[in-house]
Specification:
This protein is an alpha/beta fold. It folds into 3 domains: 1-154, Spo0b-associated Gtp-binding Protein, Chain: A; 160-329, Rossmann fold (3-Layer(aba) Sandwich), CATH 3.40.50; 350-421, 2-Layer Sandwich (GMP Synthetase, Chain A, domain 3), CATH 3.30.300. Helices cover 21% and strands 22% of the residues. It has 10 helices and 18 strands. It has helices at residues 57-60, 170-177, 226-229, 253-267, 269-272, 292-303, 318-329, 369-376, 383-395, 398-404, and strands at 5-11, 44-48, 63-65, 85-89, 93-97, 103-107, 113-116, 147-154, 160-163, 195-202, 205-211, 238-244, 276-281, 307-309, 356-360, 363-367, 412-415, 418-421. The strands form 4 sheets. It has a 6-stranded mixed beta sheet with strand order 10-11-9-12-13-14, with helices on both faces. Strands 3-1-8-5-6 form a 5-stranded mixed beta sheet, with no helix packed on it. α6 (292-303) links the parallel β13 (276-281) and β14 (307-309). The longest helix has 15 residues, at 253-267. It is elongated, with a radius of gyration of 32 Å. The N and C termini lie far apart (69 Å).
């Protein structure tokens, strides 16, 4: 089964918590704090696997979560980092944010892409020791991992795309010009998925061609199979437009050209301007009184496109087509690599973090993700730890925000369920 569009959920590992511990050894007094830092959480990393050609594996598994970091150890030992998850995708896969649709990465090169980074490990109590606070009884928790829904969209990387109505001979042509062996039969929609083939022109000269399943009228709106596979023409530098010159299917080849080009225009105006070579196929079975070739030549001249006449089934006129395609490719830019639409930003300043203040019934409530992380790091039974909590709130600007909003002395402040009396 060919799968080229899936949605998955990825989550990096949480950082390990810092440890609260003290050096205890026989005959050693006042050993001091020795709690180690927590380990870093694992990240989710995408890499290209040249042996993959579909996203089928993601139909079976939709959620990927990296390991969390371990808690810090005794004797200032840092906890073990969580293992990264490495996800393999076919070359040409686009990674998009499911919420915004923004492109995060085009997996067309060989560089790995870190989609979500693991949370940082928290500090152990050894990091909080100072000349005046020699026995801190608190540590910092690890940061939560990042979570994201993403869409994986495969767009094949090929130099040349073979387009045209079903049963005009695209698969036969691909099998003749390359070593690819697509399924071939005399009925519509024999080809149910795109096929790639490497075409050797000469020593050291080759290009990749893709047989795109039959596009029909209305494909851009979802008719037939073309809607699912039009995306695979996006990267093609050159389009080889195959038509049945014999009219064996009862269709007019000139009208076929207009119809397919109309679908390309509806799907992507940029795609409609892509250079084309028209291939009049099945010339070996044309009726004697048929004027399709003359009409196709006139149509090609009107579109300013080269036209070649051949019979793929009889392997007649195929080699000139290969040379013509190679000549055209030398004048065209390389396969398109899409640039990411968003760039990860640096962490915001503390004053811009998620700190919310709300007054209800005479109580000032202080909430937010940053506040939750701070509270989790404090031992409220320890006097020095409570002083650290107050100083951190003041440095973060929480007291200034309360005074700006009109708090008065002896008002009650609620920080995640713990209430204090406000004193200037």
């Amino acid at each position: 089964m060919f799968v080229d569009l899936v949605k998955i959920k990825i989550k990096s590992g949480r950082g390990g918590d810092g440890r609260v511990s003290f050096h205890r050894e026989k005959y050693v007094s006042a050993g001091g704090p020795n709690g180690g830092d927590g380990g870093k959480g694992g990240s989710v990393i995408f890499v290209v696997d040249g042996h993959l050609a579909t996203l089928l594996d993601f139909r079976m598994k939709r959620k990927y979560q990296a390991e969390p970091g371990e808690m810090g150890g005794l004797k200032n030992c840092t906890g073990k980092d969580g293992a990264d998850i490495v996800i393999k995708v076919p070359r040409g896969t686009l990674i998009k944010d499911a919420k915004t649709g923004a492109l995060l990465m085009d997996m067309s090169g060989s560089e790995p892409f870190v989609a979500v980074r693991g949370g940082r490990g928290g500090w152990g109590n050894a990091k909080f020791a100072t000349p005046t606070r020699q026995a801190p009884r608190f540590a910092k928790p690890g940061q939560e991992g990042q979570e994201r829904d993403i869409i994986l969209e495969l767009k094949l990387i090929a130099d040349v795309g073979l387009i045209g109505f079903p049963n005009v001979g695209k698969s036969t042509l691909l099998s003749v010009i390359s070593a690819a062996r697509p399924k071939i039969a005399g009925y519509h929609f024999t080809t149910l998925s795109p096929n790639l083939g490497v075409v050797y022109v000469d020593e050291g000269a080759s290009f990749v061609a893709a047989d795109i399943p039959g596009i029909i009228e209305g494909a851009a709106e979802g008719a037939g199979l073309g809607h699912d596979f039009l995306r695979h023409i996006d990267r093609c530098r050159l389009l080889v437009h195959v038509v049945d010159a014999s009219g064996s299917e009862g269709r007019d080849p000139v009208e076929d050209i207009d119809t397919i080009n109309g679908e390309l225009q509806s799907y992507s105006p940029a795609l409609a301007t892509r250079p084309q070579i028209i291939v009049a196929n099945k010339t070996d079975i044309m009726p004697p009184d048929c004027d399709n070739l003359e009409r196709l030549r006139a149509k090609a001249e009107a579109l300013d496109c080269p036209i070649l006449e051949l019979s793929a089934a009889a392997n007649q006129g195929v080699r000139p087509l290969i040379y013509k395609v190679w000549e055209a490719l030398q004048q065209l830019p390389p396969v398109a690599i899409y640039e990411p639409e968003i760039v990860p930003e640096d962490a915001p300043a503390i004053s811009e973090r998620d700190i919310r203040i709300e007054a209800r019934d005479g109580v000032w409530y202080v909430t937010g993700a940053w506040v939750e992380r701070l509270v989790a790091s404090v031992n409220f039974e320890d006097h020095e730890s409570r002083l650290y909590f107050e100083r951190t709130l003041r440095r973060a600007g929480v007291f200034d925000m309360l005074e700006r909003d009109g708090i008065e002395e002896k008002d009650t402040v609620d920080v995640l369920g713990m209430q204090f009396e406000y004193v200037y």
